[in-house]
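Lab notebook: predicted structure, single chain.

Context: the supervisor wants predicted structures on file for every construct in the current expression panel, including those that have not yet been purified. This is the next one on the list. No modifications to the sequence; it matches the entry in the shared construct table.
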Amino acid sequence: QKPMRLRIAPSPTGIAHIGTAWLAMFNLALARQSKGKFLIRIEDTDRARFVPEAEKLIYEGLGWLGIDYDEGGAKGGPHAPYRQSERLEIYRKYVEQLVAKGHAYYCFCTKEDLEKMRAEQLAAGELPKYNRKWRDADKTVVRQKLAAGEPYVIRLKVPDGREIKWQDLIRGEVVFQSSLLDDQVLLKADGYPTYHLGVVVDDHLMEITHILRGEEWISSTPKHILLYEAFGWKMPEFAHMPLIRNADKSKMSKRKNDVSILSYRDKGYLPEAVRNFIALLGWSHPEEKEVFSFREFLKVVSLERVQKTGPVFDVEKLNWYNGFYIRTIVKKRGLDALHERLKPFYPQDYAWEQALTILALVYERLVTLTDIEELTSFFYREIEVETDLLLKKSDVASVAEQLTRTIDELGKIEENDWTTAKIEEIVRGVCETQGYKKSQYFMMVRVAVTGKKATPPLFETMEVLGKEKVVKRLEGALTKLENYG
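Prediction complete. Output recorded below exactly as produced.
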């Protein structure tokens, strides 16, 4: 297999998109398998939507996920610059070649001209398209307008009566009729190229052999094919990946969803969980595995196993992966390794002297790393006990009597004997000798000492809290009942 050169070309318009990472993984895999190169090019020619810090976020997001690249960014490379705004002279040179060859033309229509044209076409029930007013204009008139400095765009001269087809690596043969294509703007009035010109020129000059991109670009591909033909350049292979969708089958977009890579980092997702999850969006492992490493993905991925229908971004599934990988860290590398990962997520008032002891009790209940505060706060902060929870399936007098007996019996335990086993012996003894209903009594004790209905195992939790804190909290619950009503 010949070395493949692949790329992603994100636009710096805000966030580092999770879809960019997904495409980057497939591009990187094919490059590695063929001993080729994977590059990142920043397509920043849409100045209206340009966000200055967005490029940094793109590289930061990919770096967090461990997605490496060979050319672009801080690495540079033989085809620099890899930022389109620094390549404007290149685009102008090539678009003027197209004009000279008769494949493109100057258009001097104003914004008002175009709006009027569109309104008339819509009123007549026609598909809005440029009416080609300047396509075959008198060359003398064109020269005069250029000499006078009138603003213009340069448009592609789309041939009539053409069938444009290509063999898509995912979708098979795709056919378009040239009659459906507009005379696309290639160079804007501000001197910046449109996506169509920039992407074709750069992919050719950067020797890109395979283009993997989202299916929303299928309708643009015929225009790109016409440009390759007009320049006389060899065409790359195209593969149009399915669009990632929401559960309701709508397109996943930043207006409706959290699609930022770094947002998932900040929410406490692990990069290995996110990688495993997005790898299976629209692709399946040849051995039908659900869990595998990124290294394995890079070796076994192939376009043959990419589906045509848009995969659903299921957050519940991502949560499952994250919980799985959290437990895997502990299983393979111990609590200390998870503790290190959690450091950015611990609250400032965390019980640092008991960090690993507490973590041992709660790590299996972590879904994301940000859960650590919610799951542990009762260990080191004052709690608020809801009276209704204390009284669940019982009454004030009964619960007050239960609390009093529990306080008395736990108070008899020596400090050096305050262990899970001893606490369990005492609390179960109270329950059995008094004939309390287990589910009601144990829930009441849990609520009294933690303020929560769901916690790590009760007796281990009480040991970590310590005798003084447990007794004090039980007494506080009793006082609350005495003042109740």
